[in-house]
Design a protein that fits this description.
It is built from six helices and two strands; from the N terminus they run H-H-H-H-H-E-E-H.
Length: 110
């Protein structure tokens, strides 16, 4: 389903244009969930996969800073370099700390 894949890519590009507070991230997650539910109705597996991946990436914006490493290395299984472009969208990117390191310090060095 070409339309659904394009819509997924458009939403991913749109997501990367903003920074997210916890409330904004929660709203964005809800919106993506609604889009995903709509796409499920078309019964197109490739489109479902695209939206499921997008929904998983939104979790980077939602989880507590101390849970990011587990999410990225565990369920998402993406490189820290890939994750960094989404972590930078967090409002707390420069201020949140894990131990004595900020997110910027932890992920920029990988």
């Amino acid at each position: 389903m070409q339309l659904a894949r394009r819509m997924g890519a458009l939403l991913l590009n749109h997501m990367q244009r903003y920074s997210y507070s916890p409330t904004g991230a929660l709203r964005w997650k809800r919106d993506i969930t609604e889009y995903t539910d709509c796409i499920h109705g078309f019964d197109a597996q490739s489109a479902d996969d695209s939206f499921t991946e997008l929904s998983s990436l939104v979790n980077i914006l939602l989880v507590a800073p101390e849970r990011l490493l587990g999410l990225i290395d565990g369920s998402l299984r993406i490189s820290h370099q890939q994750a960094l472009k989404y972590i930078k969208l967090r409002e707390d990117f420069k201020s949140a700390k894990i131990g004595s390191s900020t997110l910027a310090m932890l992920f920029a060095n990988d």
